[in-house]
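Collaborator request, handled under Task 6.
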Amino acid sequence: MSGRGKDLSRRSRGGFFQAYNIPGNRAVQALLASKEGSLWMAYGMGGEGVTRLTTEGLTEHYTVLDGLGHNEVHALMEDGEGHIWAGTSAGVARFDGQNWTALKGMSEMEVHALFMARDGAIWMRTADGSAVRYWNDRKGPRTYLTNPQVQVPASGNVNVDWEGRDRWLAGADALEFSWRLDGSAWGPYTEQIRTSLFSLPDGTHTFEIRARDADQADFGTRQAAGNGQ
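Structure tokens returned to the collaborator:
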């Protein structure tokens, strides 16, 4: 596989090169073949984001609308857990298999190269030639319900408030939270610290909340409550 500018070619088993039609005005800046078989293409100048060619032949395209910190992507890397990392003109973003998330506190950095060391640390080369080391301690922030509900009113309506604490972050505003009710799918991570639940049916209900820090490490808590009927 080779790429240069707006051209991308693949050499077949017969020794012939086949051109891939890159749509629009996208210029390939970096290529990455992931362990699960996808081919990733990053587009630098011009700001066109990232394209993924899956093993099923599907094409998926990602931009800042999908969570990238910037549409100019200069470098791609895969870590030991299969996550895809993108070095952009506004920091670094990570793809967990479903969503891109831009790491907080790095938006001022223009990252042009990524490398994972044996100890798990990620080294970055910035546009000004600086080397930056990033290491995830894998210690997620703790979450706490600030108004735990033992019993839900007969109306079935209740407000739930929470907070998170991280040993490396001074303010809760640096954290993001996700919650779910009764084992349903987790909601998206947001900075929201309160939600209202309405018309809960009779029975016991379990509310779960988890927090995520800048390293994308998370930790959750849960609370069971029954309504008053």
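The cover message to the collaborator said: "The longest strand covers residues 218-227. The CA atoms of residues 95 and 176 lie 17 Å apart. Please let us know whether this matches your experimental observations."
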